[in-house]
Design a protein that fits this description.
The protein has 178 residues and is α+β, with helices and mostly antiparallel strands. It has one domain: Gcn5-related N-acetyltransferase (GNAT) (Aminopeptidase, 3-Layer(aba) Sandwich), CATH 3.40.630.30. It is built from 6 helices and 8 strands. It has an 8-stranded mixed beta sheet. A hairpin with a 6-residue loop joins β4 and β5. The longest helix is centred in the middle third of the chain and has 16 residues. It starts with a strand and ends with a helix. InterPro entries: Acyl_CoA_acyltransferase, GNAT_dom, Ribosomal_N-acetyltransferase.
Length: 178
């Protein structure tokens, strides 16, 4: 478990896989900024049984409050085979908990964990240019805007542009000194 000030990050337990599937496939929770295609529940269960959603290249964590109540999820995954880079994806399931800084804390916690325990030099976050709350998370977590990728994600019948944000190891080290 990764412990934070207001939240903790931990792996999903077998008894929580149905909750994870339910929230992953709830289009209202996913919002208008992610691809709307639902994930196959059988494939999700199979992936969990095979790996527990934790490998060297990708991992899924629950974001839980101090009473261990699941609030959402955060994951990292390999961007490509050419460089040691991970990208984050995240979602708070309970809309009442949004805007309280939990996701910024989760991003900072997972960034700390990866930079302290791996040789990664770069972490990326990408979001629809219309997803201002996610952009705010990236900014508040110390990520730098690097540009826009045009028409990358298909959602609601159209292609959306994505903002590209990144945090380099040297930037993370500088933030830790403050």
């Amino acid at each position: 478990m990764i412990r934070g000030e207001n939240i903790n990050l931990r792996h999903i337990r077998p008894d929580e896989i149905e909750l994870f599937i339910q929230n992953t496939n709830d289009l209202d929770i996913r919002g208008n900024h992610l691809n709307g295609m639902l994930k196959n529940p059988a494939q999700i269960r199979k992936g969990f049984m095979e790996t527990g959603f934790a490998t060297e290249d990708w991992s899924v964590f629950l974001i839980v409050d101090k009473f261990d109540k699941p609030l959402g999820g955060i994951s990292y995954f390999t961007v490509g085979p050419y460089a040691p880079i991970r990208e984050f994806g995240y979602s708070l399931w309970d809309k009442e908990q949004r805007g309280k800084g939990y996701m910024t804390e989760a991003v900072k916690m997972l960034s700390d964990y990866l930079f302290l325990n791996s040789t990664l030099n770069r972490i990326e976050i990408k979001m629809s240019v219309e997803n201002r709350p996610s952009e705010k998370v990236a900014i508040n977590a110390g990520f730098t805007k690097e540009g826009i990728s045009r028409e990358v994600i298909f959602n609601n019948g159209k292609y959306d542009d994505l903002f590209n944000y990144a945090l380099l190891r040297k930037e993370w080290l500088e933030m830790r000194k403050r």
